[in-house]
Design goal:
Strand content: 5-15%
Helix content: 40-55%
CATH superfamily: NAD(P)-binding Rossmann-like Domain
Strand order of the largest sheet: 1-2-3-4
Number of helices: 7
Shape: globular
Largest sheet: 4 strands, parallel
Structural class: alpha/beta
Number of domains: 1
CATH architecture: 3-Layer(aba) Sandwich
CATH topology: Rossmann fold
Radius of gyration: 17 Å
């Protein structure tokens, strides 16, 4: 169970693609009760013109950071027999679209990673679930897509509520779920 006398949030600047840094980061924490992997990004382009460098960068950013954080947080969670892992995928992970092949493929890998962890932690007090947002209503998306289209997406507040639920005690019996959070799109 989480301890109420520990800091609830600590912000640290770290290279999440460097395993030694991730190990050090996790080992500095007395407990890891929850991991919410929010790292992600994308670049658009047709597959035939997409560079292999950009493809690898999408997998580094979206999948490899998730793997390293999950791997080392999970070790601590297993030692304390408690933890909640929530990763962020994308609607594109289950409904891929053109011009976003690397993003969709890398987010699909995050779904598979999270579901595998959920299976590996059956019978424990550790859960792993993934949230699949569609377009998030942000200032950047409003500027790019237009206000009306962007507002049909998911608000950051709504997405945060789903994430916090999956990281809570109330979700103790949910594991391996890929939760769609699509808004009106």
């Amino acid at each position: 169970m989480p301890s109420s006398n520990l800091p609830r949030l600590t912000l640290i600047d770290a290279d999440l693609l460097d395993e030694a840094t991730v190990i050090s980061l996790v080992n500095q924490m007395p407990r890891v009760d929850g991991l919410i992997h929010l790292v992600g990004g994308f670049a658009m382009g047709p597959t035939a013109d997409y560079s292999f460098r950009d493809w690898k960068q999408a997998f580094d950013l979206n999948v490899n950071t998730a793997f390293l954080l999950c791997k080392h947080s999970l070790k601590k969670m297993q030692a304390q027999n408690y933890g909640r892992i929530v990763t962020i995928g994308s609607r594109g992970a289950v409904e891929p679209v053109g011009q976003l092949a690397a993003y969709c493929a890398s987010k699909a890998a995050v779904v598979a990673l999270t579901k595998a962890i959920a299976d590996e932690t059956k019978g424990t007090n550790i859960t792993a679930n993934i949230v699949l947002p569609s377009v998030i209503d942000t200032p950047t998306n409003r500027q790019t897509m237009g206000v009306e289209q962007s507002q049909r997406g998911v608000t950051p507040e709504s997405l945060a509520e789903v994430i916090c639920f999956l990281a809570s005690e109330a979700a103790q019996d949910i594991r391996g779920a890929a939760v769609p959070v699509y808004g009106s799109l």
